[in-house]
Amino acid sequence: MLAYLVLAGLTNSAIYALVGIGIVLIFKATGTINFAQGDVLMVAGYVAYMLHVALHLSYPVAVLGALAAGFAIGMLSERLAFRPLKSADTISLVLATVGLSFILKGFGRLIWGGLGDYLSFPSLVTDTPIMMGDIIIIPQQLVVIGGATLVIACFAVFFKFTPLGRMMQATADNRRAALLVGIRVDRVHLMAFAVGGALAGAAAVLMAPITLLYPDIGFPLFIKGFAAAVFGGLNSLPGTLLGAVAIGLIESLAGGYLGSGFLDVSAFLVIMAVLLVRPRGLLGSAALRRA
Amino acid sequence: MKRLHLPGPASCGAAVLVLFAVLPLVANPYFLFIGNQLCIYVILSVGLNLLVGYAGQLAFAQAALFGIGAYAAGLAQVRLGLPLIVAIPGGLVVATVIGLAMALPALRLSGHYLALATLAFAQFTNWVFQHWDSVTFGGGGFRVPPPPRPAFLSAGLQSYYIAFVCAALVTLAASRLVCSRIGRAMIAVRDGEVAAESLGVHLLGTKSIAFGLSAACAGIAGGLQTLMLGFVSPESFDLTQMVLQQAMIVVGGLGSIAGSVIGAAVLMGLQEGLRAFQSAQEIAFGGLLLGVVVLAPGGIAGFMARRAAGWREQYLWGRKPPLPANPAP
């Protein structure tokens, strides 16, 4: 029981981590939260579904398609909901991305909602559970955890070692100084939204076989990714990972031991508690409280 | 561009009041329902604008507090057998108390953190509506039998006139409030917390008042919604309802009472026109929210203030109006 719950929890953690890292990346580079992050994931998931299930293309093509879709929608988000508002206040920025989130959700429902309420996406590996002693393992769970780890590792390398990643770090540290040394900050903003979108696209393909696809899937994932990000301080990538693991595990254990109704609500209670006790998160720096 | 010459918001408001007072005499039941729902939306929108547009606190709990008002008023009638005259104010009190209880810790937060905390609160509230079966009747919702009424009024008319009187009072009170010391303190907090404090504005007090007032509006609107529909269910108070309300104040104009009323009417019209098409509703609400924030900050009220010479938001006693919200340069 415990092992099963931990594994299921970690699987969700992997998805929350991917969403949360996208949110933190965008927040670090631009100072705003993309409330449409979950809906980018939803659309990317449907794109992968179209490629893989409807057009019978191979799995890697579907993965690339989802990454590309996430990347493109991320760029579009920056153009529509961030660039025109660069000098606006937080309220305008947040409401703009909330609006964008609903536009994406509406289009998702319009285009794909008619195909069926919950679309199933085939697993990469067999659906037959593996028994290890008395532990039941669903292979796709391992794919999700392994896949997410791989994506996060790639992202860490990108962020630490590539020129673009280092430009993002520089912009996050000090926008004005970055501008002074010749970094095209506008381009960095655009790429942050795009890479954030691609991370959501990766999450979509990994997660779709387990959760199925439906138009309303975006918001719950966004709010949990956001919670993971806040848990870790909103500006710390390792902190976000930690937050995602914590939220996934708490959810799963609460759902298992307190009753399945508590699965969803425990995450919200944790968020409220964290914001109450330590608004800057576990690993965050103090300066961000009023962001 | 040529400036339009139009009567000001006060005269327009008076005209709307008269129109709404006599409307039921000619309206069919559908339009009566629309008018009733619009009155409720006006209360919600005015309340939310006080919090977001005037005090600058981006909270997402208004739909949840609306639900708390509706559940409290409905359950007071069904479970406790209280009369309507107690149930609706009861809903107001419960929503205000819970709103303040939520706001007190939230007062330490601002910006994105406040948005997340209030979103989590809203999700938690909706979960309680759905899962606390022994009190809330769970996900299926519950019926509230129509309250007794005087013989000369139909149930629809009674509900309409109660909502109409409440909406008129809330709007008048709010337009008076925003010109008062409290309203100006809220605007000062929005435009700069440190500056406001240095001018002697009590930061926490002012924020609490804004949270309390918006929760009170949500609470009374909830009671009126219960009265109108005779039915309460969790999904009426979900994220879509929240975005609908945010779109109302953004389209009408953040920091404008007249705008709150106009925005409520515009979004109400859209919601009814697209009732059969959920995806079109979402695209329309989201599109308006994004489009107005990007292309026309200030909304309809901001547009009127720039383009129409006679349009000054000048309310009772002719005091100078506060400036509409402007995105900081």
Give structural attributes.
heterodimer, A: 291 residues, mainly alpha, ABC transporter involved in vitamin B12 uptake, BtuC, globular, B: 329 residues, 2 strands, 1% strand
Helix content of chain A: over 70%
State Rg of chain A: 18 Å
Outline of chain A, from the CA principal axes?
globular
Question: Oligomeric form of this entry?
Answer: heterodimer
Distance between the termini of chain A: 41 Å
Radius of gyration of chain B: 19 Å
CATH topology tier name of chain B: ABC transporter involved in vitamin B12 uptake, BtuC
Into how many domains do the coordinates of chain A divide? Answer: 1
CATH class of chain B: Mainly Alpha
Question: What does this protein look like?
Answer:
The complex is a heterodimer of chains A (291) and B (329). Chain A is mainly α. Chain A has a single domain, classed as Orthogonal Bundle (ABC transporter involved in vitamin B12 uptake, BtuC), CATH 1.10.3470. Helices cover 73% and strands 2% of the residues of chain A. A two-stranded antiparallel ribbon of chain A has the order 1-2. The N and C termini of chain A lie far apart (41 Å). The relative contact order of chain A is 0.20. With 329 residues, chain B is an all-alpha fold. Chain B has a single domain, classed as ABC transporter involved in vitamin B12 uptake, BtuC (Orthogonal Bundle). Chain B has helices spanning 9-26, 29-54, 62-78, 84-106, 111-131, 133-136, 155-177, 181-191, 193-198, 203-229, 239-252, 257-273, 278-295, 299-307, and strands spanning 142-143, 231-232. Chain B has a two-stranded antiparallel sheet with strand order 1-2. The longest helix of chain B is centred in the middle third of the chain and has 27 residues, at 203-229. Residues 314-322 of chain B have low confidence and may be disordered. Classes of the chains: A mainly alpha (291), B mainly alpha (329). At the A-B interface, α4, α9 and α11 of A face α5, α11 and α13 of B.
